[in-house]
Amino acid sequence: MPRLAALSTRLPLLRTAVAAASAIPRRRIVCLLPKRAFSLAPTARAAAAAQALTSAQYPTLRRNPDFKTLNDNDVAFFKSAIKSPAGVITADTPDELEPFNQDWMRRFKGQSTLVLRPSSTSEVSAVLKYCNDNNIAVVPQGGNTGLVGGSVPVHDEVVLSLQNMNQIREFDPVSGILTCDAGCVLEVLDNHLAQKGFIMPLDLGAKGSCQIGGNVATNAGGLRLLRYGSLHGTVLSMEVVMADGRIVECGKPLRKDNTGFDLKQLFIGSEGTLGVITSVSILTPRRSRAVNVAMLGVSSFDHLMEVFKQAKMDLNEILSAFEFFDRTCLNLVKRHIPNVRAPFDADTRFYVLIETSGSNKDHDDDKLSTFLEHVMTEGMVEDGALAQDATQAAGMWNIRETITESLAKEGGNYKYDLSVPVAQLYDVVEEMQKQLAERGLYAADGSATGAVKHVVGFGHMGDGNLHLNLTSTGWTTELTQAIEPPLYKSIQRRGGSISAEHGVGLMKAPYLSYSKSADFIDLMKSMKKLFDPKGILNPYKYFPPS
Ligand SMILES: Cc1cc2nc3c(=O)[nH]c(=O)nc-3n(C[C@H](O)[C@H](O)[C@H](O)COP(=O)(O)OP(=O)(O)OC[C@H]3O[C@@H](n4cnc5c(N)ncnc54)[C@H](O)[C@@H]3O)c2cc1C
Q1: For site-directed labelling of 50, which of 84, 223, 252, 469 has its Cα 20 to 30 A away?
Q2: What is the pLDDT of residue 475?
Q3: Which of 145, 161, 177 is at the close of a domain?
Q4: Residue 477 has pLDDT above 90, yes or no
Q5: Atom 48 of ligand 1 has which residue's CA nearest to it?
Q6: Which CATH number is 262's domain given?
Q7: How close is the Cα of 501 to the center of ligand 1, in Å?
Q8: Cα separation, 380 vs 67, whole angstroms
Q9: Other Cβ atoms closer than 10 A to 474
Q10: Residue 277 and residue 216: Cα distance in Å, rounded?
């Protein structure tokens, strides 16, 4: 690596950091493409076992009596409509049923007695037509990695899982357009494209489990949004099954199509309330030939913003990620994820992970070296490390990507993903720490002795997206009330959004008015009536309870 060696000669601090990164034995760095197995630590598992039903946690969300309770004839119909014997799971096998009733955080627990796993669009259509005709409520489910309680039932809704719809239908290497079933797992698609020199335009820590249909239904953001934009731009068309079973093509796999309303946009981020997405066509970019990853330690949020401004100036079109996390996040990752080591020793208040992607390594190295020289000589950065190969780059990414998992292993985890003007991102974290400390719920000295153990911030700085997370001994109404209305009021006051990327689901439905006006919500309700007149799709969620 002559260019990086030259760079480190000019930058003594960086040289130390690079040496530290190089010194990490290879076997200690977590493997390149981990298939995430989201296991929980014993404390969290115990909390899960004791977890109350969602219907008990939200007693005001009563079961809609218009929805039919399933009987043997209904189950017999579904068994005839779905050809695969593994396509229907009933209460006869409770162990198989349970994961579909429980969300990833182990915070929400439904009571469905039936999971349907169709293998084709026509099977989805037959199922939904029957449900609509018979007033049977349905929860569409992808990889069940959603973080707002949207993917699991509240009462006894039927779970319609897209797991068995996992075929790649077509890939055009000239246009880069990929068409696939909605149940394809994101990481599988990315690996498939990698062999062809392309890349999925989105990436998230849950990639080993989440599905492209779920990504589109939640309008997932993630780690590549800074570079490739949101799914509202990259999804070109989709196939949707309406609540009454009609199969509707929303557009064609074309970059330009100016005929009619762009209905697919309505389904992006509709969280299973308007229809079931059964296939997606998405524009995929070329995989970059030259990728650099650096992790830097920064002592204050003001410095972090300076580094961000400098990165945009010096790295411009090759900047592909700018992720930040605070010291506690790093410490929790080190505690809970095996074999993780920070690539340098300096203990700083914030860390930033910067990625560049381009097509010319010399050109990118030059730009990165100018940037690193600037931020280090100007004192914006305390210490840093530059990955010297793909394994080290993956090791750095692994730290960022396992923050969510580490927090979940601490016990009860309150998760908020917020859009806030960049300059105010960390003010939100400090405000929450102060408020909870004043109420005796959080120990401000960092001793983790309060009902709330940690209040941390991390996220996609480049997108103005803060993940504010609190870990606690469990979820209680008292804590929820101490956190939620004040937080959402603060976000409204700051001109932000109460959901940057995870969506509304069950968790944020009562607070939608902090981000949307009454007229806007009325219009949303009218559209829901048009698309799903009987309200069978994902009831009790997304809209403020009436
Ligand atoms: C470790 C971890 C990291 C994460 N990182 C990010 C991140 O960086 N950015 C981000 O945006 N999110 C992130 N998430 C949240 C989650 O992964 C995303 O919301 C993801 O897009 C959900 O996809 P899924 O297939 O798991 O959907 P599910 O969780 O199964 O469902 C989510 C919602 O979409 C609906 N739905 C699912 N499939 C369909 C379909 N085919 N048709 C209609 N509706 C459907 C469901 O009804 C539900 O309302 C993370 C989660 C975890 C656990």
Answers
A1: 469
A2: 81
A3: 161
A4: no
A5: 151
A6: 3.30.465.10
A7: 9
A8: 59
A9: 13
A10: 8
Greatest alpha-carbon pair distance for the chain in Å reads: 76
Residue 24 structure tokens = 């990490």
Residues 326 and 306 in one domain: yes
Does 244 share its domain with 323?
no
pTM, two decimal places:
0.89
Pocket test for ligand 1, best of 123, 124, 147 (most atoms within 8 A of CB): 147
Give per-residue pLDDT as tens, 101-131: 999 988 899 999 999 999 999 999 999 999 9
Q: CB atoms < 10 A from the CB of 230, how many? A: 18
CA distance 390 to 291: 9
Beta pairing class for 235-241 and 247-250: antiparallel
What long-range pairs does 345-349 form, CB within 8 A, spacing at least 24?
A: 345/20, 345/383, 346/297, 346/382, 346/383, 347/297, 348/297, 348/298, 348/299, 348/382, 348/383, 349/298, 349/299, 349/300, 349/301
Number of domains in the chain: 4
Do residues 70 and 97 touch, judged by C-beta distance below 8 A?
no
The answer to whether residue 527 sits within a structural domain is no
User: Which protein residues are within 6 Å of ligand 1, measured from CB?
Assistant: 104, 139-147, 150-151, 162, 182, 204-206, 210-211, 213-215, 217-218, 220-222, 271-272, 276-277, 404-405, 501-502, 505, 538
Number of Cβ within a 10 Å radius of residue 89: 22
483 with 415, same domain: the answer is yes
For residue 137, tell me if it sits in a domain.
yes
